[in-house]
Design goal:
Layout (H helix, E strand, L loop, with lengths): L2 H26 L5 E4 L5 E2 L8 E4 L7 H14 L3 E6 L10 H8 L7 E4 L4 H7 L4 E5 H7 L12 H10 L3 E5 L1 E3 L2 E3 L14 E3 L11 H9 L5
Parallel strand pairs: 3-4, 3-6, 4-5, 6-7, 7-10
Antiparallel strand pairs: 1-2, 1-5, 8-9
Amino acid sequence: MDEREDSDLDARADQRRAHSRRHITGLLLGETGVVWRSPRGDWNAQPAPAPRGVLSGSFNPLHYGHVELRLIAQSILQGAVAYELPLVNADKPPVDLEEAVIRVEQKFDAPLAVTTAPVFLQKAQLMPGVTFVVGADTAARIIDPRFYPDHPRGAATALSELRNLGCRFLVAARQHAGSLLTAENIGVPAESADLFEPIPEDAFRVDVSSSHFREQSRNPPPE
C-alpha cells in the first residue's frame, strides 16, 4: 500500500468519525432518543429490519463474548438481534462524546443503537416489543429497588410497565463476585418471573468481561 492509499484510508476514517460525532452530538443534545448505526457505518433513525432482540452493553471494548451472546440470542429468538450502547448508565459514569465515537467505530457485526437511556424501562419506551439480552449480573440490577426511586413499588411497577410495552429479558448466566448468577437465583419477583428467560448454560457460558480486555491492553503479556 503506497502513501496515497494510506492517505485515502485516513481521510475516509476521519469522515466516518466526523459523521458519527455529528449524530452522537444530536443525541446528547436531546434532539432524538435513539440513533442507529449499521455495520457499514450508515446512520438511521430506525434499523432495517427492526430487531427482535437487543444486547445492551458498554462495549469497552466489544469482544467475542458479546458477539457469541448476540448470535445465541438470535438463534433462540429466531429473529435479528442488535446491540445498544447507552451513553448514560445507571451504575457507571456517562460516556463523553469522543469516547462514544471510539466505541461506535468498533467492528460491530449487527446494527448498533446509541441511546441516553440509563434504565431498561426507558430503553423499552424507545424500543417497544424487543427482548433485551443481558447477563444475570445486569438482570440483578434491573430488579434492584435503588434504581427506581420515583416508582411507588420500585422494580415491580417498572417491570409491569415494561411488560405493557411488550418487552422481556433473555438472561445469560454470569460468574460475579465468586458466585454463579442465573435468572433463577437472583430473586426475580414471582409476578415477573415469566419476563426473565434463562439461556441454557450448555448453549452459552462466557465469563470474560470487557475489564479483562482493558487490563490486557494496559499490561500485554511478555513476548
